[in-house]
Amino acid sequence: MIVSEKVIHVFFAKKQTIVFNENIQQLTENIQKQYSENPHDIQLQTILAQIYYKYQNNYKIALKMIKDILIQDTLEIDARLDLAEIMIDFNLGSKEDIQNLIYECYNLDQNYWRTYYIHIKYYDWIQSQDLFLIIVLKQFLIKFPNNIWLKVYLLQILSDQNKSQLKEENAQEFLDSDFLDYDLMRRLAYILRNEGFNEKALQLLEQGLNLNPNSFMCLNNLGYFMKTNHKNNLECIELCKKSLQQNFRNLATLNNIAYTYEDMNNFKESTKYLKRYLDIYQSPYQFKSIAYNYEQLEEFEMSFYYLLKGLKKFPNSPILNKRQQLIFLKISGQEIIDKEEFESLSQKNCDLQLKLNEPYYYNPHLILNFVFK
């Protein structure tokens, strides 16, 4: 398996895939010059907008350009898809807004593959189950059987379950692609790492960063690689911090750095990043992790408080309900022996929730069964 050093930058405009093979700085200058001479050229404007949000993480300028494109051509599909991708990558707007944009694109053209690609990114972003993503991707690939972006996405998800069965000759086919830009590189690196080709995975991540030094996902994935393959938590944290400098709303990096700090028993720092995650996107897993961190710090009231907040948002979450029962018992500071003591603890828990100004969320029947089974 050979990872050759190629300079490839891929853009999408007017339903075309456009490839450049020059340094990104030189490319940016050339496109800016051409655009200044042709300010109504939608293809140039679309490419420049993608440079801003993909290579400079300046989505605000990109959004202004996209707005201008849509004023010029209300039917422009790539501008809509760029808008949806920005909302996903930078966690902006609502799920409904992104869905509506994607459905608008289907209405404009049901045969444009990029709409299907952004749609699977959306499903992944809302944390759909892997099995669902696999089923949807296989359906998409029936329509677009040779599409490298959809094929690599499917292999990436399958590799998490050790089901990609990627052979060296198949990997080489992707590595030789004329569309192998920094983003495909980091996805292929993810697959190769899961398949045990660690040296090649590292080469791809480093090469991806050479093509786009500001890629927050390449920085995040390299950090994860350093943690899991080189057991270097400190380097992982430094790379995650660089990633967050590029996109402080990147959930994958916030998770990565939070759980790395947790592995290092630095529960305060871990909690700080988990709270930042919750400020952007609420998930039961982060509530549970914050509760766990406070438990390790022996701040049981705060642990219980975050479980309550989580249950208020996700009342049927099994992981939150189970963790709440355990913390409920720990608040007593001693082992529960009989029902009298249970009732005393129950009152203490009720008082605690009143103190925290939270409604009473625990399930007494579940806890009673747990204690006196």
Automatic annotation (TrEMBL):
TPR repeat ranges are 182-215
| SUPFAM superfamilies recorded | TPR-like
Keywords for this entry?
Answer: TPR repeat
Report if keyword Transcription regulation is assigned: no
**Name assigned to this protein:** Tetratricopeptide repeat protein
Task: Indicate yes or no for the key word Cell wall biogenesis/degradation.
Answer: no
